[in-house]
Amino acid sequence: MYSIMEKSKVIGYVLAAGLCLSGCKPGAVKEVKNDIQFDSTMVSQQYHLLGNEQYPNCNLQIKFVYPQKAEANVLPMLQKQFVTAYFGEAYDTLAPTQAVERYTHDYLEAYKDLEDDFETELKRADEDTPVGAWYSYYETSSDQIRYNSNGLLSFTVQFENYTGGAHGAHAYNHFVLDATTGERIHEEDIYGEGYQDLLAEILVHAITRDNDLSDPKELENIGFFSVDEIYPNNNFYVDDSGITYTFNEYEVAAYVVGPVHVHLSFDEVHVLLKPDTPIAKLAGKL
User: Fold this and answer.
1) Beta strand 57-69 with 37-48: parallel, antiparallel or unpaired?
2) Class of the 37-178 domain?
3) CATH architecture type of domain 4-30+187-282
4) CA 214/CA 282 separation, integer angstroms
5) What residue segments make up the domains of the chain, in order of their start?
6) What tens digit of pLDDT does each residue of 179-192 get?
7) pLDDT tens digits for range 272-281
8) Do the Cβ atoms of 280 and 190 come closer than 8 Å?
9) Beta strands 242-247 and 169-178: pairing type?
10) Rg value, the chain, Cα
11) What is the β-pairing status of strands 137-149 and 57-69?
12) What is the pLDDT of residue 8?
């Protein structure tokens, strides 16, 4: 990491470069829609323990959007990427609708596995010690297409669940694909060598700005952990306005802060981008 003085110089340089680039870079790249069409499938399932509506239940809600039409040599990879991103690697050999059916079955069966423990608690319970509400589970998920043009396909999987404990969990997981191959694009594919430290400083500066603070260290007074530990996490999506990162719960801050979304304009990261990539072209770095 950089020293405090070096940090100031680095951020100042990037901001100055961004101001210059906003006035000096070529015009916006013309948007060309990818030849990809989407379909969706929805699930709304509920099951009460022991089949008794008086007992706790699980509730599963799925709204899965996935590529349904694309070039024949690319569609299988695109669908695999979406299935893996949404349901996990255990389902990556299945077609989208099959993955939804299998995941729904597995979720309900996993919940039914609680029934033996629940019955044991029922036998022990009396009017003064009712069975705990922690047996009431839920899971809600959906995905959103963020960008589908110029050879790039960005999407986000949003997930929320509760499986007992003090509170539920929430997550935003982002993915960027090369629409011509179906392969996932990672940070190292778009940024130049040694980008991590400088990008970390840019992210910290943006989070500080978004919270109306002037000193990054002040973030530690509003629920963030050490600002020195905020680092690029590969959880980003791209659209025509820039690159957006998300740090999910407990990554960089306490649960009460929630997920931290950080939007970086192309001007802010322009100096880090590799040339001759779809994202560099989108940013106007031709």
Assistant:
1) antiparallel
2) alpha beta
3) Alpha-Beta Complex (3.90)
4) 31
5) 4-30+187-282, 37-178
6) 999 999 999 999 99
7) 999 999 999 9
8) yes
9) unpaired
10) 23
11) parallel
12) 44
pTM: 0.88
Amino acid at residue number 12: G
The strand pair at 152-162 and 169-178 is best described as: antiparallel
207: which 2 tokens? Answer: 């989070």
